[in-house]
Amino acid sequence: MDDIDRKRATTDSFGSVADAYLDSDVHRTGADLELLASWCDDAACALDIACGAGHTAGALAETVPTVVAADATPAMVGTATDAFPVSGAVADAERLPFSDETFDAVTCRIAAHHFPNPVSFVAEVARVLTPGGVLAFEDNIVPEDDALAAFYNRFERLRDSTHGEAYSVTRWQEWLRDAGFGIDETATMRKDLDYDSWAERTTPGESARKELDELVRTPEAEGVYDVTIEDGTVTEFSNEKVLIRAVK
């Protein structure tokens, strides 16, 4: 599958679950969301890339006068603009339809693992940010260990065929520095997830779900996800995310 096909598949997949993401506790609350928004408090005009159902854009709008919620999936943009006081734009994260130096803050929360070319995404963010502008970035990360990283991405793709690849903290920091950003702050957080709700949100097929249920009990899964098993049933697990405040 080439990059265009991957993007089309992602758009199709998320178009049917926009309302579910709006109601998702994982996406609509959390210390991570509060921290990202706080990093943009001084902005006058902000862009939220891959906005999903609009939770980050909505959090920005509490302090930022002008917020644009952008997503490649039209249904997500519609959900965001209906739910929050923001404007919307259908946009590819790797080819943003905005002029150079348009925004003084850009956010992207838990989405970049879907992007086929993260280096292009970082370059586009640098292009549309004003000098001194802030990127408040968050995404799921893999361990620095190559074997565990490969396990993580295999596990995630079983649950969600639109999952591209998650990367390590080191890799994201390298890409940002190569694009001319200074790393102002880096934090990692773990978020506890209900296993069944997480597994079913993207409606995997029966065979994929069966394989997920087998893999989640392996030592590799314990090492990556800190799995909780009660009375023989997998109840919770957690994944790790990085939050980076980068300045152009």
Keywords:
single chain; 248 residues; alpha/beta; Rossmann fold; 8-stranded mixed β-sheet; 12 helices; 8 strands
Walkthrough of the structure:
Helix content is 42%, strand content 26%. It is an alpha/beta fold. It has a single domain, classed as Vaccinia Virus protein VP39 (Rossmann fold). The model has no long low-confidence stretch (mean pLDDT 90).
Domain module count: 1
Q: What is the end-to-end distance?
A: 34 Å
Percent of residues in β-strands: 25-35%
Radius of gyration using CA atoms only: 17 Å
pLDDT < 50 runs, ≥5 residues:
none
Class from helix and strand fractions: alpha/beta
Largest sheet: 8 strands, mixed
The CATH class: Alpha Beta
Oligomer: single chain
Question: How many strand elements?
Answer: 8
CATH homology group: Vaccinia Virus protein VP39
| Named CATH topology | Rossmann fold
* Helix content estimate: 40-55%
Topology as H/E string?
Answer: HHHHEHEHEEHEHHEHHHEE
Query: In the CATH classification, which architecture applies?
Result: 3-Layer(aba) Sandwich
The pLDDT mean sits at 90
Count every helix, treating DSSP H or I runs of 4 or more residues as helices: 12
Global shape: globular
State the gist of this model.
The chain is built from 12 helices and 8 strands. With about 250 residues, the protein is α/β, with parallel strands linked by helices. The chain has a single domain, classed as Rossmann fold, CATH 3.40.50.150.
SSE layout and pairings?
Elements: H1 3-15, H2 18-23, H3 25-28, H4 31-38, E1 45-49, H5 55-60, E2 66-71, H6 74-83, E3 87-90, E4 103-109, H7 118-128, E5 129-140, H8 146-159, H9 169-178, E6 182-194, H10 195-200, H11 206-215, H12 219-225, E7 228-230, E8 233-247
Parallel strand pairs: 1-2, 1-4, 2-3, 4-5
Antiparallel strand pairs: 5-8, 6-8, 7-8
